[in-house]
Amino acid sequence: MSLDAIVDRALEIIGEAVSIDPLDFQDNETWKFLGLGDLLAAATAADLKSQIGVDVKPDDFKKYPTVGEFKAFLRKFGEGSTTSNGDGAVESSKPRLVDTEPSDPWEGVPKPKVPLSVVLQGQPNDSSTIVFLFPDGSGAGTSYGTLPPMGSNICLVGLNSPFLRQAQNFTCSIERMARLWVDEVRKLQPKGKPYVLGGWSAGGYYAFEVAKLLTANGEKVERMIMIDSPCRLEFEALPEQVVGELTRKGLMGASGQKKAPEWLVQHFTSTVISVDRYMSTPLESKHVPPHVDFIWVREGLVKSVAESGLEVDLNIKVTRFLLEPRPELKTVGWEKLLPGAKYTFNYMTGNHFQITQPPHSDDLGRLIKAVVT
């Protein structure tokens, strides 16, 4: 790609993020004026990296705060200029081109030890609606097996992580995980039929990225069901230290046991590391599903963090999201990634880790059935 093409494509990507035609950008306008705040800047930087391989950092939008300055910064890529960092050391002032992921997403990935998908209810060929549900940090799509019967016209499919029971090999990105799943989803859905995708917690990110892949290839996603999934534009990745504290206190476990199984903790930790590197970027407006349904819990994991004995930093928003009681959340950032959809909001019993545990799973099943029928 030529230097001019890199600059033009970068401006297109930024324009998509702020919903402004890049031809309307003026060199003297600042990114702040154009609506590129800190969170959207981080998402846009990730998009520049994934789409054109230019490793722009979110802070570069502050270092080069106007359109003109940023264009000049991008052009330094071709000049190979360097600057002093103030300590006498010299560092490159140009964005770095990074290697893209392999064309075959399975390259270097060991064979899964579990099926990638499990039909939990109904039959794909006999049901009017197939609901694909992506897993939380545990990686176990079978956790949705506790949902009550949905009826003869609804098929539930749970997606298992390819790295379930071998979390030490889970080092790939959220986007690549979606690529590992997308063919499995296509295999179970009759061609041309609109998709219904859902996910709990990190599963919402997987569902979102799979929707990108499907719609980019001409498929239609009719509905997305986001189950207590905190948007990455608004929430940090959960710190590994918090995972350790929750495990120590017996607050995290697929079946509510006092001590979570080791495979779950390992996979959850690998997921947290992957989420930390992930920043969602908007779905193109023409590909946004008509319906996006949010299902939130309102209970925290503990009644009082102070009395729980948990040693956590409550300055981290996602930690408060898990631990403390909440108000009735709405889109909380997802509206920037899924603009123009019709949003619905539902609230269920239990806390974040009880979502697929009885009796709360009955409530979840009731809400899913209500939005897809």
Description:
This is Oleoyl-[acyl-carrier-protein] hydrolase. Residues 11-74 form the Carrier domain. It is a single chain. This protein has 373 residues and is an alpha/beta fold. The chain folds into two domains: 3-97, Orthogonal Bundle (Non-ribosomal Peptide Synthetase Peptidyl Carrier Protein, Chain A); 117-372, Rossmann fold (3-Layer(aba) Sandwich). The protein is built from twelve helices and eleven strands. It has helices at residues 3-18, 38-52, 60-63, 67-79, 174-188, 202-216, 240-248, 262-276, 305-308, 317-323, 334-337, 360-372; strands at 54-55, 82-84, 90-92, 96-97, 117-121, 129-134, 154-159, 195-200, 221-227, 291-297, 342-348. The strands form three sheets. A seven-stranded mixed β-sheet has the order 5-7-6-8-9-10-11, sandwiched between helices. α6 (202-216) links the parallel β8 (195-200) and β9 (221-227). α1 (3-18) crosses α2, α1 packs antiparallel against α4 and α5 (174-188) packs across α6. The longest helix is centred in the first third of the chain and has 16 residues, at 3-18. Residues 80-94 have low confidence and may be disordered.
